[in-house]
Design brief:
This protein is of the alpha+beta class and 112 residues long. Helices cover 29% and strands 21% of the residues. A hairpin with a 7-residue loop joins strand 1 and strand 2.
Length: 112
């Protein structure tokens, strides 16, 4: 029976980390998002916004690196699992923010 438990764990979604860089300072990490491999882009965005205070309605997760121009078509489809978008453990995920990130990140950054 002990063997079954281990097998089940392997079949379940594995933990993975996505790195989010700061939209305010180039090359500075904003935070690590600890997620599971079966999470969708929408779930990753929700965690990012809940953790940092960024507004969900102003945030679009996107391919690419923060600080580089990200074209509109780089936005990730929210229903898609992040691994199907090509993300692996330790990868950077970017976002496009349509409001003022400095104001909305102020409280989160003050806690660091």
């Amino acid at each position: 029976a002990a063997g079954d438990a281990v097998e089940f764990e392997v079949r379940g979604a594995k933990a993975m980390t996505l790195v989010v860089m700061s939209p305010l300072e180039e090359g500075v990490k904003l935070l690590d998002l600890h997620i599971k491999e079966d999470w969708t882009v929408a779930q990753v965005k929700a965690l990012l916004c809940e953790t940092t205070g960024l507004k969900k309605g102003s945030t679009m997760m996107a391919k690419g690196k923060m600080g580089q121009r990200v074209s509109e078509d780089a936005t990730l489809p929210e229903k898609s699992p992040v691994v199907e978008c090509g993300y692996k453990d330790g990868d950077e995920i970017a976002f496009i923010y349509l409001a003022d990130p400095a104001a909305d990140l102020e409280a989160f950054l003050a806690k660091r």
